[in-house]
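User: Please fill in residues for this 337-position structure.
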């Protein structure tokens, strides 16, 4: 294994060639050969020259190239390793590389081939559903997840991923059903939080029950998310004093939880506690200076307090961090009239 100093030297030495290679400029084949014949790849390259049919050598070089972020250059080696020895691990490594170099269609083709070639390995179908989801093909992703569930109805990860796809498709009721099934099979925190969030989004008090379960299992008293979810539920149901308690507890457990400050500030704003709300939003900007929402709500506070200049200043600040925050632009236009 190279030392940190050596790794830095190697990256610096080949930087110009790599940049040209990845940008598609100059003689790609020549640039590639220069890189592969330089340290730290030279030894493996020489071995490949002696044993061109050894798939392991191509895999070793591909992994080393990937470790140095030369993913485009590694692609040929992953492909060659797969061609020489079409094993399941080789296929999965090749798929990962194809996704890194933004070739999802090639990854889909390979995954479909592997599903046929290795019908007993569900990882290929899972990865295919993942790629479909990443490329916006949610219906195809759903088909693959349903196939996984048909093969094994106790696959809690498939139920969890299915719920994510259903949320994107706008089917909240079915998403909740899938997530309930996943949580029954494996009541781990991340699934419970996802389920609580979905319950809260439809104002279902079951959100509180799930959060309380998660809180009771937190022996270290360090997990803030359940309190945040409870806070949003109470806020959306206009139980403001209870919401404030939950947001304060969330912040107590993680003082960097920016969204908790913002939601707390909104509750205070709704309660017409404008000075306290402004103080809370200001704190949010010290925690995360780039929070457009925090700057926007500071603007709202200044506006309702009658300080138009300060309001416009903060709305503009919000837009510097999120140009798509149309509400801030609208408030500026109205204040200038």
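Assistant: Residues filled in for all 337 positions:
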């Amino acid at each position: 294994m190279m030392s940190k100093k050596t790794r830095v030297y190697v990256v610096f030495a080949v930087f110009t060639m790599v940049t040209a290679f990845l940008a598609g400029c100059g003689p790609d084949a020549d640039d590639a050969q220069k890189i592969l014949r330089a340290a730290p790849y030279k030894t493996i390259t020489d071995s490949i020259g002696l044993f061109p049919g050894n798939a392991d050598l191509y895999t070793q070089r591909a992994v080393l190239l990937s470790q140095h972020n030369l993913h485009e250059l590694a692609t040929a080696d992953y492909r060659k390793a797969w061609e020489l020895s079409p094993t399941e691990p080789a296929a999965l490594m090749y798929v990962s590389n194809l996704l890194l170099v933004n070739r999802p269609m090639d990854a889909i083709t390979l995954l479909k081939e592997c599903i046929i070639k290795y019908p007993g390995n569900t990882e290929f179908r899972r990865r295919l559903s993942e790629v479909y989801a990443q490329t916006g093909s949610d219906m195809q992703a759903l088909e693959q997840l349903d196939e996984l569930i048909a093969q094994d109805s106790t696959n809690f990860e498939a139920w969890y991923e299915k719920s994510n796809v259903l949320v994107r498709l706008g089917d909240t009721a079915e998403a909740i059903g899938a997530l309930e099934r996943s949580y029954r099979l494996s009541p781990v925190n991340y699934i419970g939080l996802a389920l609580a969030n979905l319950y809260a989004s439809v104002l279902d008090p079951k959100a509180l029950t799930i959060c309380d379960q998660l809180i009771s299992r937190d022996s270290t008293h360090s997990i803030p998310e359940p309190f945040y979810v409870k806070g949003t539920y109470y806020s959306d149901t206009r139980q403001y004093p209870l919401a404030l308690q939950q947001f304060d507890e969330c912040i107590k457990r993680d003082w960097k939880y920016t969204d908790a400050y913002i939601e707390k500030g909104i509750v205070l704003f709704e309660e017409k506690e404008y000075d306290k709300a402004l103080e809370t939003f200001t704190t949010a900007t010290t925690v995360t200076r780039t929070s457009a929402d925090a700057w926007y709500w500071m603007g709202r506070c200044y506006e309702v307090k009658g300080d138009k200049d300060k309001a416009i200043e903060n709305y503009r600040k919000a837009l510097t961090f999120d140009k798509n925050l149309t509400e801030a632009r609208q408030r500026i236009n109205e204040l200038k009239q």
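For context: Residues 1-27 have pLDDT under 50 and may be disordered.
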